[in-house]
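Structure in, sequence out. Go:
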């Protein structure tokens, strides 16, 4: 078994250890992540506990920021800062790639919409809206007579004859 020291870079086991007394559901988020040993607790006779800090920076991780949890030494594998930096770089490039793909998809959809859509559809919709407005105005003007720049009703109310 490897000898761990404070400041060593370690990779956490990729599979949760459900038989361990120390392992909880909180530990599942750390599976297959690389972190740095912050503290070692050797008070117990049968296990050595190590506090590992993992930096969750990227969107694929459901949490972000530095998180620290205690692990048994059997859950850790020696690693390096280079490996941690490599994974962070790959995560960053993957996010950039996803943004690029979203942009390409959006622009492709716009081009296809221009190519395959009816160019007169907007004109028809505008014409239909104008026709509805004209019909509404005709209904509002029923009962009115039109003269040169004036309107009047074609009937007289009894209240007007006084």
């Amino acid at each position: 078994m490897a000898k761990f020291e404070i400041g060593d870079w370690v990779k956490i086991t990729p599979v949760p250890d459900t038989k361990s007394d120390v392992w909880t559901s909180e530990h599942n988020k750390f599976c297959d992540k690389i972190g740095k040993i912050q503290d070692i607790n050797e008070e117990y006779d049968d296990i050595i506990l190590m506090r590992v800090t993992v930096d969750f920076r990227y969107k694929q991780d459901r949490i972000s920021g530095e998180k620290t949890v205690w692990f048994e030494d059997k859950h850790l594998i020696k690693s390096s800062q280079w490996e941690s930096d490599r994974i962070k770089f790959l995560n960053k490039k993957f996010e950039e790639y996803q943004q690029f793909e979203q942009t390409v998809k959006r622009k492709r959809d716009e081009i296809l919409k221009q190519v395959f859509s009816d160019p007169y559809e907007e004109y028809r919709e505008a014409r239909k809206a104008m026709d509805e407005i004209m019909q509404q105005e005709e209904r509002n003007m029923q009962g009115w007579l039109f003269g040169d720049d004036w309107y009047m009703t074609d009937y007289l109310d009894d209240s007007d004859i006084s």
